[in-house]
Amino acid sequence: MGAEGTPQIMLARFLKHHNSEKINTLDMEKSLYLIILVYFALGAIAFAIIGKGKSRIKKREIWTKYVTYFLIIHIIYFGILFSPPWFSILAAIMIVAGLGEITWLNLCQPSSENNRIFLLSLLIFLLFAIPFFLFSLLERSVLLYVFIIVMVFDAFSQISGQLFGGRKLIPSISPQKTLSGLIGGIVAALVTTLFAAELIKENLGSAMFITAIIVIFALIGDLLASFYKRKNGVKDFSNLLPGHGGFLDRFDGFIPAGAVMYVLNILLP
């Protein structure tokens, strides 16, 4: 056997390649964190515009929401970076809290119709929650990709909707959501894909397709949560997260998005 094929050289090449991939991933994580900070800076400007002319109480509500979101994003971001096991623990907390909030609303509004809606909602939630927890066990680059796409879509949907207003998306289910908000969220998610595609080791076309699927399921989760709240006559699932409501108010899109990514991870070569 030639020198190039000796076990020592093969091992050295493997380690070099492995270390190179690790360095690239770390560089990408740092770059994405900078992008997150840029997005938060843009969000601060947008919130300042939205709050212009509002009452002192309304301004306090706006900035409470902003600060809480900043903290939530950092807890999950660093939970992913230190996975395993931290993100799986956070995922379990989201699931348990979500189950509790769904059940609590049903107990507060008991009726035969609400009981049927509760059982159906519970089934749908579990269909998303189980693969979402399995998703939490995937490699952190995949977790980070889905998290950032959902975060950007959700944040810019709200900001665009409040800045531009206009036609309501589905007022019978979610009176606050607008078409301009949806478009703003989609555009922001696709732009983010340009920088984040390397995380999932896909070409840009495939990454755009995956982002579209993630966004669709995030929107479905959001609308399902809004439908359940509307049927129970409430605005929020709870008040556990200042400015955001409950855990499902914040993670209603992330759970279905993570679930579908777990399925895609199995199906796609």
What does this 3D model show about the protein?
The chain is mainly alpha-helical. It has one domain (30-267). It contains nine helices and two strands. Strands 1-2 form a two-stranded antiparallel ribbon. Helix 2 runs antiparallel to helix 5 (140-164), helix 4 (112-135) crosses helix 9 (254-267) and helix 5 (140-164) packs across helix 9 (254-267). The longest helix is centred in the N-terminal third of the chain and has 45 residues, at 7-51. The two termini are 34 Å apart. The model is unreliable at 10-21 (pLDDT under 50).
| Poorly predicted parts | 10-21
The tally of strands reads 2
Number of helices: 9
Write the element-wise H/E pattern from the N-terminal end onward: HHHHHEEHHHH
Largest sheet: 2 strands, antiparallel
Percent range of helical residues = over 70%
Overall form: globular
Structural class: mainly alpha
Instruction: Give the total of domains.
Output: 1
